[in-house]
Structures are given as structure tokens and as C-alpha cells.
Design brief:
The protein is mostly helical. The chain contains 2 helices and no strands. InterPro entries: FAD/NAD-bd_sf, GMC_OxRdtase, GMC_OxRtase_C.
């Protein structure tokens, strides 16, 4: 190579480490983004949604997509995303049922 890849200068004498450094620097996902809206304890400042998929600090808003997945699935994200959506719809329906029951009391 005539130009050393930026950030990998210290590995130029070791081909394996150099190419590994390059791969880590330039490989990215284009079609299967996940994990951008961390789910967890509402008191954890690093989380975006709670376990019921509700966005913290914003009422009546939920995130029901692949962004709540903590890890990228080893295969296509389509089916896991549908599973998150099914679970999300169950949670929403249950919450609506509870609200309706409270209104009747």
C-alpha cells in the first residue's frame, strides 16, 4: 500500500493486525440498524425506553421496533422486529384494558 489507513499506523508491520484494524474502522451496517433506543430500568440514565416500551419523560409515546434490541441478531432483523411488534401490541392492549377497568371503577 502506498497510503497507511488512518488510525492503523501502529500495525503496518503486522499484516493481520493492520487489516483487522482497517476492517474495524470501515465496516458498518447499512440495512439492519438495531440497539439505538436502549430498553431498561427507567432510573438508568442510559436507557431510552422502559420494559413496557414507553419512552422516558414523554407520555403516550412508545418505541416498538428493532431499536430496542440490545444486540444485532445473527440473521435478518425482519422476524425479530415482528416479534418486538407483537409483544409491543400485547403490552399496549393490556395497558388499554387496565385503563378501561380503572375508568369503570
Amino acid at each position: 500500500f502506498t497510503t497507511v489507513y488512518p488510525g492503523c499506523e501502529r500495525f503496518v508491520d503486522d499484516d493481520d493486525k493492520y487489516f483487522f484494524c482497517m476492517a474495524l474502522s470501515i465496516v458498518f451496517t447499512v440495512n439492519h440498524q438495531t440497539g439505538t433506543a436502549k430498553m431498561g430500568n427507567p432510573r438508568d440514565p442510559t436507557t431510552v425506553v422502559d420494559p413496557k416500551l414507553r419512552v422516558k419523560t414523554i407520555s403516550h409515546l412508545r418505541v416498538v421496533d428493532a431499536s430496542v434490541m440490545p444486540n444485532i441478531p445473527s440473521g435478518n432483523t425482519n422476524v425479530p422486529t415482528m416479534m418486538v411488534a407483537e409483544k409491543g401490541s400485547d403490552i399496549i392492549k393490556e395497558d388499554i384494558r387496565c385503563e378501561a377497568d380503572n375508568d369503570l371503577n
